[in-house]
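Pasting two entries for a bug report.
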Amino acid sequence: MHCFSFDIETIPDVDFGRRMYDLQDLSDEDVASAMFFKRLQATGSEFLPLHQHRVAAISVALRSGDTFKVWTLGDAESDEADIIRRFFDGIERYTPDLVSWNGGGFDLPVLHYRALKNGIQAPRYWENGETDRDFKWNNYLSRYHWRHVDLMDVLANFNNRAFAKLDEMATMLGFPGKLGMSGDKVWDTWLKGGINDIRDYCETDVLNTWLVYLRFEYMRGNLDDKQLQREFALVRGTLEAMDKKHLNDFLAAWPSS
């Protein structure tokens, strides 16, 4: 069994903004400001519609066999098409169970739009039982199937009035939560050339998601006490061996249980 926790970070699709609003002579920063302002006028919030987001980073945590890995797809120079293709290629290769926080409400719809824009095929992801009967009652697309577990949605009993933020849930459970970065800082960080900071932040988000998922699996009875501690130890050991600053900071903020 392969389990694949994932998280994406996005920036405004300024190319779309230029074409849509005829802003050819403006900088990326000014085009994005215009997009935010138009959205604010229309809705009272600057948060852009999902199809106006561009993927800047995708981080994943893969639990497979006796191993655990966390990394960000591609490298700092990879373009959007490359990192999205890598994400769907991973699904094609492993057919993993997917785990996310608000993945059904944000990450996956954004990936749908951007895969469509970039001409990326993902037949395994879009399978609904027409060619593989195992997917008829358990696929990635249905909100109520288990091949993709959107923890925010499931824990709220599919009730948007009960949704919680990942940072608050992770903190409540004794995990690190956000460490000086948040999604609303990604665009400013991007403009300053901080793609590596964005990639590091995305990895810590996916780690928080994975740790919450382990507690969820314990609550469901799929892990007992010893198995849960073994999973925690595997994560700790993996991060210690990687010896990267943002992961060491994550470990320092995660007290031993």
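Entry 2 (this is the one that rendered wrong in the viewer):
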Amino acid sequence: MPDALTLGFVPFAAPAKGVFVVFCGEGLKLGPATAKALGATAGLVARAGKAERFTGKSGSSLELVMPAGLKAGRLIVIGVGKAADLQPRDFVKFGGIAMGKLPTSAREACVFAEMPRGRMSAEQAAELAQGVRLRAYAFDRYKTKRKEDETPPARRSVTIAAADAAAARKADGPRAAVTEGVLLARDLVNEPANVLYPAEFARRAGELKKLGVGIEVLDMRAMKKLGMNALLGVGQGSRHDSRVVVMRWNGGRKSEAPVAFIGKGVCFDTGGISIKPAGGMEDMKGDMAGAACVTGLMRALAGRKAKVNAVGIIGLVENMPDGNAQRPGDIVKSMSGQTIEIINTDAEGRLVLADVIWYAAQRFKPKFMIDLATLTGAIIVALGHQHAGMFCNNDDLANRITKAGLAAGETVWRMPLGPEYDKQIDSKFADMKNTGSGRFGGAITAAQFIKRFVDDKMPWAHLDIAGTGFDSRQNDVNKSWGSGWGVRLLDRLVADHYEKK
């Protein structure tokens, strides 16, 4: 969220200036408090709606400049469709829509927290505010010139008019912390690789100490001592040394096992010796979106003081071609002791995860492990940009992730695992090879590779976020290239099932 945006809560009332945003249902149905705040202007809305063929369809809007009967300089009416069709996650969405409808030049705005059926609860008003904050985000720190109509005012103020402003303000606190986690993840993904290399990523993750997160950084010497040769092999062609960052939030009982989140952090991926085509390679600055999500999640949990013990571990590397780079045909011994034949150096993320997942399980013995990685183009072929691919060895965990994703609007689709796919990564020269046979089922064979580093008794899920972590389909709460996908989903998972009540 830009520093220029401030957001607060006020009691129900029409604003004295700025932009006034209200919601209506089909047939221009207004809530009672909204109709009261508009007064005689409600009739003007009805006439203008008829002239503009605005009926209150979900996501549509009607704009009136200098509306008679209101002190506000502009009135924006946003349609929400049939009231009976509203879902809990829609309040975040409509907050984003409201922010998106504001003119770039608007300095002040008031969003009325009422739907056609009546007043929003404090929690719903807070979710509306979350949508405003998420939509307000822009990554433009490197722009030195802008067109005049693209330049927002130095300060922007948005207030949410709520039935109980104090209760909404209280409900907003945890959601604002989660939003900050999402925006941190977006920042990390959007940064160019010449700025955000492994050591710098580790430094930024270290800033979470201010929130009470325990930080430990494993350098090259520590990783070599642990035997993290799969991870180290990926980064050996880069001038930037690799890192592993361990983030710990202890908000639960002292003796309670933590929940664990592991992120792939390839700060730039050329493909290594198996170099990628030049076209679109610039997008590979986002190949650390899994690590960004885990860092943002730890920011969210600490920010809202979640009553859970959680550990986030990210493997940070660069995959570069060099005289010292890993070669196809090389064999490395992972931290687990299993050996891996490198068939394709562009299948590097799974090598990073292999060591970090093993390390997480052995050291922390968590309740479950979830890893996130922009791992395969194959998952985009299968699912597009609408869902992340989920591979899981535990039905209860899979169902909980699915439900959390639906609630947060960050959806997953469960994909298969099985011995038939596993055979495809057997190697003639080592315990396994790092790619499957042929081009089919690539996301599945990648998941099968990771699964070889997970004890079958440990609940584990792998989320392939190649289609959602960056350059994904933009929506009402995100217009950024880096999406911050996964932070809200995993925070919801923790809040619903793993926090001490």
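Dev reply: Rendering is fixed now. As a check, the viewer should reflect this: The mean pLDDT is 96.
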